[in-house]
């Protein structure tokens, strides 16, 4: 409001001043004579003022025209202008559209279409990190491994895309079964992104497969640090790795600190049978049988296991059966109702030739859990007690077709291992072996073996299942 008032006042003042000036100029006498190329001009004072103003305006217009001319010349030279910018935008748009379509094609598994779109996007866009990645993925879908590899290698050249390139190459090597190169690539990927979980897992598996236990433990520690693993799982896995590390080195007749590593593994996970056995053997080798016995007893308390009993026997290899029975009391008094303890005691009694005691030790196992081992022990007891050959043979025959009882079985592929291993020999999984009974009979016997009880004589059976079996077989025979 005030501003417009000031502007009006200024305008009025300006006009008044100009009018006054013009009146003053028109009253001045005299004139200016301009001679130009034979032309004479006589200008009064007022006319001179108008001519000066006209000159200034003309110069300003000249400058403006010159600027426009320069702009036009620049455009002809191919500089960025509104026109060229319009065309570029159109090009980028088409590039992104090709990129989008290429990604869709990858997702729907149309490899060749994806490759075509990727090539188009590459031509239109100046985004090598995007288009090269699309080319790699499209080539993989299309089954063109060489092209994919070349694209991944191109990604390695830039900092931003290096990790993606390494990962792509690593997956390729894994698929091709080149685990050695894959391991190196996994290590590089891990260096770039130590917190990347999938990389940690791949590296850990490759290190375990190749027996690089020290490296695997380092990877495991990094994994735990980034919070990708529950504490108890970490402890168990680390124990497994420490054990494997020690196992490898012990086999090379290595030194005491290596055996100490095995003991450290045992301390971290007292329920781990192989670790306890290894630790005990390390103590025995060091001439410390009491420590070995302690380790084994502790492990037996957690989980009775035949491997522990075998290691316990190694502490005193030359004792008499009676001495052994007495010394093993340390084990047999803990967990006395566990089948493993019952069978161990029966074996010790058989060795000491106290067959009634051996039979008592087995308790109801022959009826409740007639595994091959229990039935074999029964045969030994019958023989020792002076039973007829037919009875002994009967137990042995039953043992032949009986379930094997718990064994080292892979949780993933269910394959059976004679001894504990950190990596499943069948499916290659890490830390999956556990001590358990197979879900089904682990091997199918030819139907003929069921006739064995009839051929070699039946064992005395409290439930009379032999008669049932015999009937079954004879009816099966009739049906044939
Ligand atoms: Zn397996």
Task: Describe how the helices and strands are arranged.
Blueprint: H1 2-27, E1 32-36, E2 39-43, H2 45-76, H3 82-107, H4 111-124, H5 128-142, H6 145-156, H7 162-176, H8 179-192, H9 197-209, H10 213-225, H11 231-251, H12 256-268, H13 273-285, H14 289-302, H15 306-315, H16 321-327, H17 329-332, H18 339-351, H19 355-362, H20 365-368, H21 372-384, H22 389-401, E3 407-410, E4 416-417, E5 433-436, H23 452-456, H24 465-479
Antiparallel strand pairs: 1-2, 3-4, 3-5
Helix pairs in contact: 3-4, 3-5, 4-5, 5-6, 6-7, 7-8, 8-9, 9-10, 10-11, 11-12, 12-13, 13-14, 13-15, 14-15, 16-18, 18-19, 18-21, 19-21, 21-22
Bound molecules: zinc ion.
Explain what you see.
The protein has 480 residues and is mainly alpha-helical. It is built from 24 helices and five strands. The strands form two sheets. Strands 4-3-5 form a three-stranded antiparallel β-sheet, with no helix packed on it. Helix 6 (145-156) runs antiparallel to helix 7 (162-176) and helix 14 runs antiparallel to helix 15 (306-315). Residues 462-480 have low confidence and may be disordered. Residues 410, 412-413, 415, 424, 426-427, 429, 432 line the site of zinc ion (ZN). The site of zinc ion has 9 residues, from loops.
User: What share of the residues lie within helices?
Assistant: 55-70%
What is the β-strand count?
5
Structural class: mainly alpha
- Global mean pLDDT: 80
- What hetero molecules are bound to the protein chains? zinc ion
Output the radius of gyration: 47 Å
Largest sheet: 3 strands, antiparallel
Number of helices: 24
Strand and helix order: HEEHHHHHHHHHHHHHHHHHHHHHEEEHH
């Amino acid at each position: 409001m005030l501003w417009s008032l000031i502007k009006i006042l200024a305008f009025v003042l300006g006009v008044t001043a100009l009018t006054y000036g013009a009146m003053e100029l028109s009253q001045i006498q005299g004139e200016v004579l301009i001679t130009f190329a034979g032309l004479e001009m006589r200008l009064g004072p007022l006319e001179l003022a108008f001519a000066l103003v006209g000159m200034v305006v003309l110069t300003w217009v000249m400058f403006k025209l010159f600027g426009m001319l320069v702009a036009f010349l620049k455009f002809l030279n191919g500089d960025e202008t509104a026109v060229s910018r319009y065309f570029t935008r159109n090009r980028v748009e088409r590039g992104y559209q090709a990129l989008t379509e290429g990604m869709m094609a990858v997702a729907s598994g149309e490899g060749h279409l994806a490759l075509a779109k990727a090539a188009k996007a590459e031509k239109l866009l100046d985004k090598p990190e995007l288009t090269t990645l699309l080319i790699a993925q499209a080539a993989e879908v299309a089954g063109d491994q060489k092209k994919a590899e070349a694209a991944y290698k191109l990604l390695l050249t830039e900092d931003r895309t290096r990790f993606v390139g390494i990962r792509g190459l690593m997956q390729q090597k894994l698929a091709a079964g080149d685990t050695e190169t894959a391991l190196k690539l996994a290590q590089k990927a891990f260096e770039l992104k130590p917190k990347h979980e999938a990389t940690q897992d791949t590296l850990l598996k490759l290190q375990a497969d190749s027996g690089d236990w020290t490296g695997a433990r380092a990877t495991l520690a990094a994994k735990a640090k980034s919070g990708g693993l529950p504490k108890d799982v970490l402890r168990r896995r680390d124990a497994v790795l420490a054990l494997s590390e020690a196992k490898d080195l012990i086999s090379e007749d290595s030194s005491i600190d290596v055996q100490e590593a095995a003991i450290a593994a045992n301390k971290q996970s007292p329920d781990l049978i192989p670790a306890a056995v290894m630790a005990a053997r390390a103590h025995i080798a060091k001439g410390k049988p009491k420590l070995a016995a302690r380790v084994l007893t502790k492990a037996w308390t957690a989980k009775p296991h035949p491997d522990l009993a075998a290691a316990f026997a190694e502490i005193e290899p030359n004792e008499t059966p009676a001495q052994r029975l007495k010394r093993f009391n340390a084990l047999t008094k803990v967990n006395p109702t566990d089948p493993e303890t019952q069978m161990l005691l029966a074996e010790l009694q058989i060795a000491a030739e106290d067959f009634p005691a051996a039979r008592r030790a087995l308790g109801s196992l022959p009826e409740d859990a007639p595994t091959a081992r229990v039935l074999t022990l029964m045969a030994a007891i019958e023989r020792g007690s002076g039973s007829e050959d037919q009875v002994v043979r009967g137990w042995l025959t039953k043992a032949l077709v009986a379930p094997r009882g718990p064994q080292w079985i892979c949780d993933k592929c269910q394959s059976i291992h004679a001894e504990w291993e950190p990596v499943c020999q069948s499916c290659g999984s890490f830390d999956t072996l556990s001590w358990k009974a197979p879900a089904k009979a682990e091997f199918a016997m030819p139907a003929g073996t069921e006739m064995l009880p009839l051929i070699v004589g039946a064992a005395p059976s409290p439930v009379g299942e032999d008669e049932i079996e015999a009937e079954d077989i004879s009816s099966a025979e009739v049906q044939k």
